[in-house]
Amino acid sequence: ATPKRSKYDIVTLTSWLLDQEKSGNIDAELTVVLSSISMACKQIASLVQRASISNLTGGQGAVNIQGEDQKKLDVISNEVFSSCLRSSGRTGIIASEEEDVPVAVEESYSGNYIVVFDPLDGSSNIDAAVSTGSIFGIYHPNDECLADFGDDVSALDQEKQKCIVSVCQPGTNLLAAGYCMYSSSVIFVLSVGKGVYSFTLDPMYGEFVLTQEKVQIPKSRKIYSFNEGNYQMWDDKLKKYIDDLKIPDPKPYSARYIGSLVGDFHRTLLYGGIYGYPRDSMSKNGKLRLLYECAPMSYLAEQAGGKGSDGHQRVLDIQPTEIHQRVPLYIGSVDEVDKLENTAGATPIAF
Ligand code: P6P
User: Fold this and answer.
1) In this model, does residue 84 exceed pLDDT 70?
2) Any idea where the Fructose-1-6-bisphosphatase class I N-terminal domain is (predicted)?
3) Cα–Cα distance between 289 and 97 in angstroms, integer?
4) Pocket lined around ligand 1, Cβ cut-off 6 Å
5) Residue 123 Cα to ligand 1 middle (Å)
6) Which of 211, 298, 304, 330 is 20 to 30 A removed from 286 (C-alpha atoms)?
7) Per DSSP, what are the bridge partners of residue 239?
8) Rounded CA gap, 151 and 161, in Å?
């Protein structure tokens, strides 16, 4: 029987993971991978909070495959994440927003998990000390990917192709997903398929302490989180959906937009409402990446009783065809995402 916890028995991420392992919800290998991810997030939290002191704000002077100016902390956070995953010895392939292609990890000797991540999402906010976050998702190796690519493809290219095929899995295959938000407090949010749990970093002793169990997104809430600066580039149905939110009934919806997916999603997870990053006339598939932004967040939203959609289908059902593929994202309270799909999302709009 589970021993009765005294009020001094603090549940940490470490003890929670061991409980999950004992309950058979995750295996020992996945426990190691998740511990290594939490270690990376603690290191990134420290770097972010001291960025302007240690001259780590500003640009790296390079552009990533997304065509975005890399911040110094983008590069460092990517190295921190990759190194923690390598030293876990249980990671077979890593796919990062900051890497052009997935990277096979030689140091893997068991477990062989696939980890997709955005090491520092919203990094353009760093210089203004606005919240940012790391987002991750974990998959089993994809056995079909061992299919032979024929001898017309060089061994190296075969290896690369296998990595890409192995990583390109639908969100329904996710074993675990989560994020760490670097804000007024550092909050690690995780699901291993049995609900969403939230841990707050206690700087007194550098441990993530369990602060919320089985988080549930409110079924509806009059909060919408869109970058309305793009309004003129949206299609007419979406414009009408947004216009209708502003009709006092009796009060209009509140607009909340941080410009950092992790911050905007975390508020939506706790308060309800809808976050949206639509396609528009300039970005035919929107801005957010399916593999390491939309799918992990949609997994969490569904685990919390919410919804993640591209406007007309579940994000988790979308089969990625390439690593950095973008999709429109509408995520949050069930009633709010349903309303969006019924008024603005019915059919994919070709611009
Ligand atoms: P915009 C940050 O660059 C990001 O990827 C997400 O974190 C954020 O939600 C979105 O882009 C903000 O984009 O176009 O509104 O500045």
Assistant:
1) yes
2) 12-213
3) 8
4) 121-122, 124, 227, 259-261, 264, 287
5) 9
6) 304
7) none
8) 13
